[in-house]
Amino acid sequence: MNVWLLPLIAMAAVQAFVGLCLFAIPVIAPQAASDLGVDPGLLGLYTAVVFTAAIPASLGAGGLIARWGAIRTCQACLLAAAGAALLSASALPVAFLLGALALGFAFGPETPASTQLLSRLTPPEKRPLVFSLRQTGNQFGGMAAGFAVPLLVLSVGWQASLLVVAGATAVLALVLEPLARRHDGDDRAAPRPAGRGTLKRALDLVAGEPALRRLAMAVCAFSAMQLCLNGFLVSFAVTGLGWSLPLAGTALAVAQGAGLVGRVGWGLVATRWAPPRVILAGLGVAMSVAAALVAIASPGWPVPAFLAVCAAFGLSASGWNGLFVSEVARLAPPGRAGEATGGMLAIAYAGLVAGPALFSLLVAGGFGYSAGYLAAAAAALAGTAALVIPLPPAPTPDLATAAKDTPCA
């Protein structure tokens, strides 16, 4: 058996359960908002808090991995995510805020940790596919939230549903213990980044490489689009299209299922036929078109037609992540893949903060969900431009002037 296979499955599971703890919030939003006496659209600010906390957590991921090891870091992320679900289940506004902060500290290090582990165990030629497979965990988490959480909400209520999610997430943290003992020694044996300089080192690593900088600009916009898809689709279908909660959850599950297909499919395409950067640019255009179609949807649309748009949306807006991670691993210096991923994610999380916050403000301000999806489409097109617009050529030195200005020995 390939040495990377079991760690790949474990890392995908980590992402699935951390994602489930996040995706459960927009699914329970219609009922939870009623109990809390707030507009469902304002719960999008929950995700803004999550990814505000994730920014410093991702920047510090390199230090955590060096101190604990990649899998032990993932176990800590799972426990933080479970704690976030428990806090949110209390239905206290301050507990929701604390839960969002805890979930941010779970999201920040889990992708850098898995990148560090898998980049060490995976041959370079297999990385686009392996990282795409790992990123399918996000889709499994979203599909579980779309199919299972609405049924739990209808049967036991939204608070008990979050308790179930928290318990399952904590159990996975315990299941990973044998893998931690097997693989974490290599990470702890590596040189540790300096303590207080860890955050700056991660950002400097991204800022110092033009290809990483441009990739970060695109991923910032793509991340905002992905979260607007996942965070508001259920509420839009319920309040804007008049769908029932289970049917609206099905729309989210369809989008996540298509994203699952996309992550594996785009990984295969990148491994065999096209460079990841070219595919990422095409997906940027596709997600913008899909978001615009969601924006013009109305209650008169046939259910299959809207579900088809959701599938196209998920295929593009949720299908790019594995290619992004494989590109970071390719461009990062040897042994610093986790640190580079942390720096990139800090920039991506800025989009995850700004996107849902702007979307929520547009909804609360009376502009509606359509305006939010159109704004996300415009941002994704701008991110695509960062990938495809050629870099200006480096200035050619004037040899005559240089010779004139150079003192003779």
UniProtKB/TrEMBL annotation:
The keyword Membrane applies. One of its GO terms (molecular function) is transmembrane transporter activity. Residues 7-395 form the Major facilitator superfamily (MFS) profile domain. PROSITE patterns: MFS. InterPro entries: MFS (IPR011701), MFS-Transporter (IPR052952), MFS_dom (IPR020846), MFS_trans_sf (IPR036259). The chain crosses the membrane at residues 43-66, 78-107, 156-176, 243-266, 278-297, 303-325, 346-367, 373-391. SUPFAM superfamilies: MFS general substrate transporter. The keyword DNA-binding does not apply. Keywords: Membrane, Plasmid, Transmembrane, Transmembrane helix. This is MFS transporter.
